Amino acid sequence: MTDPHPDPAIVARLRAAGCVFAEDEARLIAEAATDADQLEDLVAKRVSGLPLEPLIGWAEFCGLRIRVAPGVFVPRHRTEFLVEQAVALAAPDAVVLDLCCGAGAIGAAIASRVGDGVELVACDIEPAAVRSARENIEPRGTVYEGDLFNALPASLRGRVDVLAVNAPYVPTEAIALMPPEARLYEPAVALDGGADGLAVQRRVAAEAAAWLAPGGSLLIETSGEQAARTAALFEEAGLLVRTVASDEYDTTVVVATSSR
Predict the structure, then answer these.
(1) How far is the C-alpha of 147 from the C-alpha of 151, rounded, in Å?
(2) Which single residue of 92, 115, 130, 256 could bond 218 by disulfide (Cβ 3.0 to 4.6 Å)?
(3) Residues with pLDDT less than 50, the chain
(4) Cα gap 60→134, rounded to integer Å
């Protein structure tokens, strides 16, 4: 159902439920619905608190429509900054690895901007995320299911030019403070970074250097408060580290480059 003018009654219901961008959401929900019954079902679910993106089946990210199924981590706008930094480092024939890929948004966005010469690989431990990632990446690239680098073929070791990582970095106790759309409907494995938020980042840092090509770079999203500790993890792993931040995106990315 497509209508450039959202139904005022639906807009009012969404706004009353706390949807800040009620007009836009009403338009997107109407676009996703095939008939009046489905439209009512989608509106009712959104009003009850279900996240918008899984309801309509996609999330906008870097100008792409990324397929997102229920129960899958929804790519955040702030992560577009990581993509921009990665694209600036990627040669036309780069080997790009999207680690902790979720729905594969980062890898898909990098490949779409760099071009067809990119060799794209992605992996995630969560089965539902892997299914969504395969919809977004294959056959353009390959998606593996498993725990971090253990999911990857040995042939990739020492070949990765751009290693993009959006590992969970929310401290366990802070999960309860997240918006309900995240803490109630996204998998804990995609949010929980352990007691200090750095548990998964430590594991990535311990192995990353072995997977990077000479001169290859890892880019990992973190918070402004955690950035110094994140940077230290990769410095201790023997990588050359710099930190970049964006007020526009309200995010921080640590870039760690192989010195080989």
Answers:
(1) 6
(2) 256
(3) none
(4) 17
| Residues in Cβ contact with 44 at an 8 Å cutoff, skipping those fewer than 6 apart | none
Q: Which amino acid is at 16?
A: A
27 closest CA partner among 16, 46, 75: 46
Spatial CB neighbours of 48, under 8 Å, sequence gap ≥ 6: 17
- Taking CA atoms, 19 is separated from 15, 59, 256, in Å, by 5, 16, 38
The token duo for 7 is: 């139904």
Name the pTM for this structure: 0.94
Nearest C-alpha neighbor of 52 from the set 9, 22, 12, 81 = 22
Calculate the alpha carbon distances from 172 to 51, 95, 195, 196, 199 in Å.
22, 33, 5, 7, 10
Q: Which amino acid is at 28?
A: L
Q: How many residues does the chain have?
A: 260
